[in-house]
Amino acid sequence: MIVQTSLLQSIKLPKILSWVLVLTGVLGLIGIRGLEDKLFYDPFLRFFKTANPNEIFPEFVWGKLFFSYLFRFGLNTFFSLIIIHSIFQNKHWTKQALVLILLVFAITFPIYLYCINDEFRFGYLFSFYVRRFVIQPLTLILIIPIFYYRKKMILN
Predict the structure, then answer these.
(1) Residues of the chain whose pLDDT is less than 50?
(2) For residues 112, 114, 118 and 120, what is the CA-based torsion angle, rounded to 10 degrees?
């Protein structure tokens, strides 16, 4: 069993396939962003697009909003992990990336839900930026340079 696992980890995807998968992941993330108003229930999209802190706080349904954010997070995570695994081709690192993504979400999501419950009185900009960590794959943008640095340090 150990030999098989080691063998599987040493098999590298052909370079063209790995770049096709990276492109697929990027296009998936772009698609999520481009179709966000059709795919997800999020009355705060328009609220934050106006960039007016005096905008009227929108009405919403908690359960629908909660599960919509979870669905969006799941899709973002799926495409982010495709990108990470295709770039680094290391299952262990992909699992670590998943843990980091889950950790950031576990920290920011309850904070954002509190901000919503507080009707963003905690701070409009604070809520705006915490929301970015919930609905956008910002963690991916942080993980890729960290893993590149890590790879460089291992090779030296």
Answers:
(1) 1-8
(2) -10
